[in-house]
Amino acid sequence: MLLRKITLEEFGAYRGKQSLDLTVKKNKPIILIGGLNGCGKTTLLDAIQLVLYGPRARCSSRGNKSYETFLRESINRQHDPTRGASITLEFTVTVDAKEHYYKVDRSWHTSGKSLKEFLNVQVDENYGDKGQATRRAQPGLKYSRHLSQGWADHVEDLLPLEVASLSFFDGEKIESLADPERAATVIESAVHSLLGVSTVEQLRTDLLALQRRQKLSDEEQHLMDNIHAQEQELASVQEKLDVAAQERADRAKTLRKAERDLGSLEDEFKKEGGGLFERRVELDAERKQAAGQLADLRISLVQLAAGPLPFLLMGTQLKELRKQAKHEHSAAAAGQVLDVLTERDEWLLKLLPESVRNEVTEKLDQDRAKRSKSTALKVNLGLPHDALAQISVLDEGLVRDKARAAQLLEQAAAASEEVDQLDRQLAGVPEQSKVEALQDARDEQIQKVVRIQESIARDDQRILELKRRRENVTAALERAHKSFVQAKVKAEEVERIIKYSEKARSTLERFGEALLQRHINRLEVAVLQSFKELMRKQGLVHDLRIDTDKFTLTLSDGEGEALDPGRLSAGERQLLAVSLLWGVMKVAGNRLPSVIDTPLGRLDSRHREHLVDRYFPHASEQVLLLSTDEEIDEYLLGRLKNSVAHTYTLVHDDSNFTTSVVEGYWWNVGAQNVA
Amino acid sequence: MSLENIRLATPSKDRLSRLKHTTGITQWNVLCRWALALSLADASTPLVKEVVTDSNVEMSWKTFAGQHGDLYLALLKQRCVADGLEPTDENVSKTLTVHLARGIGYLGAHKEMTTVEGLIGSVAAA
Q1: Contact call for residues B107 and A310 (beta carbons, < 8 A)
Q2: Do B25 and A302 lie within an 8 Å CB cutoff?
Q3: Reported pTM
């Protein structure tokens, strides 16, 4: 990995847009960046980490602040926070002998109370092509949405954070690495992350996870239990079904017997005249009706009797009475005529002459006497003058009543006959007490039959339900068997997986141990060599051991005695730390850029020379040195000059607290490009 | 006239009481009409001439005869004459009493007359 260019915009003390070209040349791996204290050297180191790792970046100025607060405070104080700040880092990565060009742009700005952050990753157009590999990819960049969104994962592939913390280090804090405890963590992370031991470890963990995911025994047990439960259920259902069927058969037998009993009871009942007895109510009702009819007819007859019917008994008397009435009527009429005639005769006689008067008088008297004689009655009953009319009316009434009477009598006779008939039938009905017992027995038997039939219906229902249930349970059992078989198949597969992953894990473990041992050995050699190269006292440290378990560093002197790091001076400890990092980088293959902030503090001139001569030009393919004018001074610059690709100075303007980047170092302004 | 109130003899009343029961005819006057008619129909002269009307059953002529009062009276007068009596009020009254008593006797004596069917059948069956 080689850094190509970094651009800071309104980041920290950097005002406006400040760019640094970080391209190195062959045999000129050093980019020298000068800056006085507080000019922003550490800010630059932070920026590189921030743009790559975002929230995970271990920025020195972040402290315990939240990421958002840190970003907010990182915007240049004189800049409008709503327009925000950004960092852009361009770099190339060689993968499979193919160089890829990346441009990662991280920008953020405030929006009201919230803060918005954007990450924009661009890669060269050939990215992803398997075709021709250009040695130096041209920055024909295009935005990659896929990389932008998954950057946090991708950057781990390019440069793991753990490794970056070794690659980008602050010289002022480096001294602490000489402490065995602190060194142990660095060595451990270096060995694990950078040298690939962690990959082996991860592989083993993954295999274990895979193994654990293959758990089946519980499930299998559950399936077994399920099958057993279903089998028991089936057995119990079958048993119940058998019992029910038996009960059903028994009950059918009982029913047949009950029906036979009922039949014989019916027969007996019939024989005893039970049918007639049962008709009794009907007969009673009929008789009652007939009797009622008869009573009604009698009432009509009684009413009729109150009429003129008795006169029919006196037919002869009535006839005589009629005759008498006629006589009396004609007598009365004659009597009236006689009076009139007497009157008229007197009137006539007066009109007659004397000569004929006597003769006429005699004749008239004779006539009247004759008439008078005809009016005389043998008997005079003094009947009313309308007696004849009354008799006529009576006759008419009698004719009507007689007809009516004849009709009523006929009906009454019929009704009476019916009543008699019914009475005779009723008389034929057997005694209730005689039949009652039989009837009761028969009714009871009927009830019994009905009860048995109901029971049978319930039995049938129950049998039907049980059969349905048996079907369900059978189906469930079959399903359980199937899944058990599947589980069995899977179990074998799982067993195989576990077996082989176990094997693979133990292989990997041995491989990891071997790899670790190999790396540690190489590291021991590299660190010791680095240390010896840098140290002024050549004989002080004779040997260096790294514990494979605890990763602690042990120094030993010429006699093989362990050397306590506490006996080393601060400068020596710093050199030891540098040696450690250098050794790590050597073992890792110098593939990563080294960014070294404030590298030479506390070192004496001899050690500084060693570092400048022996370390910086060989630390890595790309070395960013962030230095004060005291560390890399004019003299050291002269010794370093041949390895320097670019020089920059961070110029701080005290009046407005802003830093700007100027090309050149203090003593070679404008001459940085001199080869 | 003395026909204003007609009182029955105690034996007649007793017999009528039974007849009321057997025939279902609940009115004294209706039964009495039938009894009178039965007696008048018999041309023979009643043997008993004097009847002691001592019961508590009493009715007016109007109640007794109903709407055919004139004809009943005429028939009674006719009977008086036939029996050789002047049809005076007294004789008519006596004739009524005697014939009523005899008729009631006839009613009880004829078994078929003890039911309303028999009673009406005696005049209407023919």
Answers
A1: no
A2: yes
A3: 0.48
